[in-house]
Amino acid sequence: MRVPPAPPLSIRPYQLSDWPRLCEIHDRARMDELRLSADVAAFRSLPRSAHSEGLFQDRLDVGELDGVVQGFVAYRRNSLNWLYVHPDCYRRGVGRALLRHAIAFSGPVFSTQALLGNEPALELYRSEGFVEIERRLGRLAESDEFPAMGVILERRR
């Protein structure tokens, strides 16, 4: 049986009314990210981490399927800072569409980072032209007691 393609993603600027949905998306997807890479004990909810990690400092857009926010992306001209997709929408093109949206607004060099072990994210970035430029051992933001290996990636036009 053939699975029908997902409906097109509608991308728009974040609105305050999106906040509860962003929290749900981040908190569920972040647990998946930490299971693959660091330690779920390092989990910090979006309300706890959004301001200290700069979610609202730059451009913040959301992606909707059938009128429901299913992902969000925060970026500036030279860097992708946040990209999260609701787990129910993994592998449906939501993350790719949001990433391409951010790339369209980027400058000639666009960078991001992902945690080593988060292969779904790393595969997405590589498939969109990002190359690994460095690995850096550090500590998770807001969870200093948890070491993590970050993979820094860059995309050039």
Report on the architecture of this protein.
The structure is a single chain. With 157 residues, the protein is of the alpha+beta class. 27% of the residues lie in helices and 37% in strands. The protein is built from four helices and seven strands, in the order βααβββαβαββ. A four-stranded antiparallel sheet has the order 1-2-3-4. The chain is globular and about 40 Å long. The protein starts with 9 loop residues before the first strand and ends with a strand.
Quick structural summary:
By secondary structure, the chain is α+β, with helices and mostly antiparallel strands. The chain contains four helices and seven strands; from the N terminus they run βααβββαβαββ. It has one domain: Gcn5-related N-acetyltransferase (GNAT) (Aminopeptidase, 3-Layer(aba) Sandwich).
| The first-level CATH class name | Alpha Beta
CATH topology: Aminopeptidase
Output the helix-strand order: EHHEEEHEHEE
Largest sheet, strands/sense/barrel: 4 strands, antiparallel
Q: Tally the helices: what do you get? A: 4
Secondary-structure-derived class = alpha+beta
What are the main properties of this structure?
27% helix; 157 residues; alpha+beta; 7 strands; three-stranded antiparallel β-sheet; four-stranded antiparallel β-sheet; 4 helices; single chain; Aminopeptidase
Strands, helices and their partners?
Blueprint: E1 10-13, H1 19-37, H2 46-49, E2 59-65, E3 68-76, E4 79-85, H3 94-104, E5 109-115, H4 119-127, E6 131-140, E7 143-156
Antiparallel strand pairs: 1-2, 2-3, 3-4, 5-7, 6-7
